[in-house]
Amino acid sequence: MTKLHVNVDHVATLRQARGVNYPDPVPAASICEMAGACGITIHLREDRRHIVDRDLELMRKTVSTVLNLEMAATGEMVQIARDTRPDIVTLVPERREERTTEGGLAVARDMEGIGAAVASLREAGIRVSLFIDPDRDEITASRKVGADVVELHTGDYCNASGSDQADQLARIREAAKIASELGLTVAAGHGLHYHNVRPVADIPEIAELNIGHAIIARSVFVGLERAVIQMLEAMGER
Ligand code: PXP
């Protein structure tokens, strides 16, 4: 079984576009859970462009599945996580000018910095996932710094086509195997859509997928509950 974690950031994006208090990502998270999501993911960015601190605080109280907080490995964010205690933190690279997360975390290059953030979070009882490219060195480094989970970046697979896409899928498959053999829980995500999710969901070592934009975009037309159900169907989970 592959679990679906829905990223509700873009409900908040719509709210922030007008500077009003709707649509609210907090009830959106509840609807996703009722539709069959096994977890809710939110990214609290340094610039608070979509999810804001109040969303995290409320979702900590209302999310009854698993609350996964994506964040940069900064002192400010580590402190926020230690104070609010999400079930899991996913450390991601973050650049202010990017439209969305680009590329995985450079764990092998900054084992000391990432390792310190991982240790601080784990000490507070929070599981830690590292968002990395499907690359052996990054997986090995993630294991060394004490991560519980690696989330494999599926962006290159989603952007590719034809035989290149098959190569990217093989890369993810191989990485999932390596990570699982090292005892890491394996997640995947970024850019996944209704039409390309199934081959990734079918990789046996991948336990969960984090999917946001495609689901929230479809919800505009079919409603959030149906959009989540249709993604579960596309994954082969219904
Ligand atoms: N996983 C991570 C680490 C991400 O940063 C994001 C985007 O916030 C996602 C998954 C979800 O990506 P998408 O919105 O393209 O489904």
Question: Could you please describe the fold and organization of this structure?
Answer:
This protein has 238 residues and is an alpha/beta fold. The chain has a single domain (3-235), classed as TIM Barrel (Alpha-Beta Barrel), CATH 3.20.20.70. It is 48% helix and 17% strand. It contains 11 helices and 8 strands. It has helices at 9-18, 25-35, 53-62, 75-84, 111-123, 136-144, 155-159, 162-181, 197-201, 213-222, 224-235; strands at 3-7, 39-43, 67-71, 88-91, 127-132, 149-153, 185-189, 206-211. Strands 1-2-3-4-5-6-7-8 form an 8-stranded parallel beta barrel, surrounded by 8 helices. β3, α4 and β4 form a beta-alpha-beta unit. α2 (25-35) crosses α11 (224-235). The longest helix is centred in the last third of the chain and has 20 residues, at 162-181. The radius of gyration is 17 Å and the shape is globular. The N and C termini lie close together (10 Å). The structure holds pyridoxine-5'-phosphate (PXP). Pyridoxine-5'-phosphate binds next to β8 and α10.
Could you give a short description of this structure?
The chain contains eleven helices and eight strands. It is of the alpha/beta class.
CATH class bucket = Alpha Beta
Number of helices: 11
Bound molecules: pyridoxine-5'-phosphate
Low-pLDDT stretches: none
Order of helices and strands: EHHEHEHEHEHEHHEHEHH
Spatial order of the strands forming the largest sheet: 1-2-3-4-5-6-7-8
Strand content: 15-25%
CATH superfamily: Aldolase class I
| CATH-defined architecture | Alpha-Beta Barrel
Classify the fold: give the CATH topology: TIM Barrel
Whole-number count of domains: 1
Structural class: alpha/beta
Question: Tell me about the biggest sheet?
Answer: 8 strands, parallel, barrel
Distance between the terminal alpha carbons, to the nearest Å? 10 Å
Total strands: the figure is 8
Secondary structure: helix percent? 40-55%
Shape: globular
Mean pLDDT: 97
CA radius of gyration: 17 Å
